Amino acid sequence: MTDDKNAEPHEGDEAAESAAASAADDLTEAEGPDVEVSPEEGAPFTEEDLAFLATGQETEPAVDQEAELLADLKRVQAEFVNYRKRVDRDRETGRELAIAEVVGSLLPVLDDLDRAEAHGDLEEGPLVVIVQKLRGSLEKYGLSSIGEKGDVFDPNLHEALVQLPTPEVTVNTVADVVTRGYKLGERLLRPAKVAVSVPAE
Questions:
Q1: pLDDT tens digits for 62-119?
Q2: Shortest CA distance to 137 belongs to which of 109, 97, 177, 171?
Q3: pTM value?
Q4: Residues 162, 123: contact at Cβ < 8 Å?
Q5: Which residues, at least 6 apart from 30, have a Cβ–Cβ distance to it below 8 Å?
Q6: What are phi and psi of 2, to 5 degrees?
Q7: Which residue of 16, 53, 127, 197 pairs with 175 in a disulfide if CB–CB is 3.0 to 4.6 A?
Q8: How far apart are CA 151 and CA 157, in angstroms?
Q9: Nearest residue to 195 (alpha-carbon basis) of 149, 145, 146
Q10: Which domains can be identified in the chain, with CATH numbers?
Q11: What count of other Cβ atoms lies within 10 Å of the Cβ of residue 156?
Q12: How many CA atoms does the CB half-sphere of 198 hold within 13 Å?
C-alpha cells in the first residue's frame, strides 16, 4: 500500500504554485524594487524631474515676494522724499508769512518817517542814523518800496486816487506818490497810492 505523503505532486498542485509565484512577481513589479539608491549610484530622477526642481514653481513665490518688497521700499522712499519737500516748503512759507506780518506792522512807522523826511526833519541829528538802520534791517529781509513819480501806472502795484488828464503823456503815468507801496520779495504788502496822469482826449 502506497503512503499518500510520499506520493508525487499532482499536476494541479504545480499549477497552483506557478500561479502564486507569478502573482508575487507581478506585485513586486507593480510596487517596484525596495532598494535604496546611494548618491554614488545616481539619483532616480529623469531629466524632466531635474528641470522642474531647478526652475519649478516653488521658486516663483520667493521672486514675487522680493519684487513686492522692493516696490514697497521704493514707494516708501518716494513718499518720504515728498514729505520732506512738503515740510520744507511749508516751513519756508510759514517763515515768509511771519516776516510779512512783522514788516507789515512797521509800514505806518515808515510812512511817518517818509513824511518827516519830506518836511526836512531828518536832514541831521541822531534820528537820521536810526532811520537808516531801520530801513537797512528791513531791506535785509527783502523789503523794497514801489511807486515813483514817472513810473508807468500798473494796477497790480498802484492804487489810483486821482486821474489827471495830461496832453504830454501817451500812457497812464504816475504823476505823484501819495503813499509809498512796499513789496517783500515777490509778495505785495501794500500797493502805492498815487495820482495818475492820463492821456488827454
A1: 678 888 888 889 999 999 999 999 999 999 989 889 999 999 999 999 999 988 888 8
A2: 109
A3: 0.57
A4: no
A5: none
A6: -90, 135
A7: 197
A8: 11
A9: 149
A10: 74-199 (2.30.22.10)
A11: 6
A12: 10
